[in-house]
Every structure is written in structure tokens, then in C-alpha cells.
Amino acid sequence: MAKKLIGVDLGGTTIKFAILTENGEIQQKWSLRTNILDDGSHIVPDIIDSINHHLDLYKMTRDQFIGIGMGTPGTIDREKGTVIGAYNLNWKTTQNVKEQIEQGTGMQFALDNDANVAALGERWKGAGNEGDDVAFMTLGTGVGGGLISNGKLIHGVVGAGGEVGHMIVKPDGYLCTCGNHGCLEQYASATGIVHIAQDKAEEYEGNSRLKAMIDNGDEITAKIVFDLAKENDYLANTVVDEVCFYLGLASANLSNALNPEYLVIGGGVSAAGEFLLKRVKQNFEKFAFPTVRTSTQLKLAELGNDAGVIGAASLARQFVNED
Ligand SMILES: [Zn+2]
Fold first, then answer.
1. d(CA 165, ligand 1 centre) in Å
2. Would you state the pLDDT for residue 321?
3. Residue 228 C-alpha to ligand 1 middle, in angstroms?
4. Cβ atoms of residues 305 and 1 within 8 Å
5. Looking at the DSSP assignment, which residues form a beta bridge with residue 263?
6. Topology given in CATH for the domain delimited by 4-120+306-322
7. Distance in Å, CA 60 to ligand 1 centroid
8. Rounded to the nearest whole angstrom, what is the distance from the C-alpha of residue 127 to the centroid of ligand 1?
9. One of this protein's GO BP terms (predicted)?
10. What is the pTM of this model?
């Protein structure tokens, strides 16, 4: 009988779950609100209860499953299966996630960080086309990334590999939460785009709906900036040009180092679609090394919110041959 996988995508507001076939087809999906109260101490017990409850609900047994994989924020020790410093979960001290979940569910468990897991998902069932060399950037409230080289995620010596959001694209630029200046995250995240818009609006004196909204004190989002740019708002277009310049520069630098088959751009900001991708590509082509320019392909992510659970489930495939 074909065995199944469980994928868990743990985030600061929701925990997403899915049961998948060994080939990565989602069969069941559900989600829970993340209860971060009491130092996040309810999170792991809630995950265990929810998995056990749903297996009962679907009349499934433990031996139908290969194991559970999970993506989580924070710093991860993959060997020990622990997480520390996941501040949006209120996990300030070390959490023995693997030990508790294996005990509570009777299944084998593996974890990695959320951006890495999304990269695995896109590589397996999305834009990465099962390639051995895939770079992934996610543009959301922050900028995250996952780099797959020779079929393996790059973790680095202490797990900080793939932190593409902190690639410096403008020395002495905007101050980043990491303490440095000019990180990509400050220019290509949803909040970074709004920051650029506000700064440009201050200097701009021409006609612009975006400028009128900002001067009016209306709430601006990255989506509004892109929508106005598509409607030929001049100021909005200069903002998008700047964002795409930094994204193209970062994509070229990353690709010059790794020469991936695909560089996949996902996250909420990537909903701007081809409009965004086309301008990022123009800058990428300007900065990329000639052989990289012709061999690395920039693409939009294809799985949306499912990338996390699919990639998480793929972590459990390592247990296939262990029985
Ligand atoms: Zn930074």
C-alpha cells in the first residue's frame, strides 16, 4: 500500500497541515490558529492533538505514514530537532519539538526553517521542476530564501545559509532589523516597498495618485503601489523600478555564485506577477555573468500557500528507507 506523508507549516498566525501521497499530491488540508500565549507552550501540544484528531477523523493509522515534516520560523538544530529564537511564536528558549511530536504521534519527524521548506516545495511540485539547482526568494513582510545546490539545501555551518534577505544591495542604505544597512529585505519586502514609496513621494512634485494618497495619510500597501504602477502612475512606476533594480541585482549576484537552473520568486509581493518579473529580468540580464544569463531562468512561484506544507512533507521522505 502506498504510504503517505504529513506536512506542517508553522507560522505566527496559523498552522497549516496537509496529508500527501508519497508523490506530493495533497489529499487533505486543514489549519489551526497559532496560540502563542504562555511562551508558545501550547503550540506543540496543539499540533500533536490536531494530527491525532484528524487521523481518527479520516480513519487512518500510523503505519500508513512515512512520517511528518515541518517548517518553522526560528533557528533550527536539525539533528536534535530543536527550535530557538522564533519570536513570532514566543519561543525564546529551546523547544524540543522533534522529541515531543514523535512521542505524541508515534511517527518520525523532521524539521527545517520555513523559507527552506517553501523552497523544497517549489522545487518538488512547483516552478523548480524537480531541478537539482534551484534558488528561491520569498517576498513577504520580510524577504526569505532557500538555496538548493546539487539536490541539497544549503544550510551553512550554523544554519544561516540562504538568508538572501540580508544580502546587501545598497551599502549605507536603509537600516535593517539585523543591524546592518542596505539589506534586500529593506527594499523588496512589502514594508520595504512602502518605505521607498514614502521617501520618493516626499521628493516628487508632479502629478501622481500615489503621491496624493501618501500626502493624504492614506494607508499604502505594496499591492497599491503595483496596481497604480500598472495604471501608469509615474511615481508608482519609479518605486517599482527601484524595487526591481534591487531584486535584479540580488538575483544576478545569487545566480553568479550558484548558477541555479531556476531562480524562483514567491511570497505575497510576487502576486504582482509578470509585471514584476519582466522588470526584475531586465535588471538581472544587465548584472548576470554571460553564461549565467543564458542558463539561469527567473520564474514566478507556482504553489502559493501550499509550498510550505508540500516542502515540509518532503522532509519526511528521508524516512522511506529506514524501516
Ligand atoms: Zn538585514
1. 7
2. 63
3. 28
4. no
5. 135, 298
6. Nucleotidyltransferase; domain 5 (3.30.420)
7. 45
8. 27
9. glycolytic process
10. 0.94
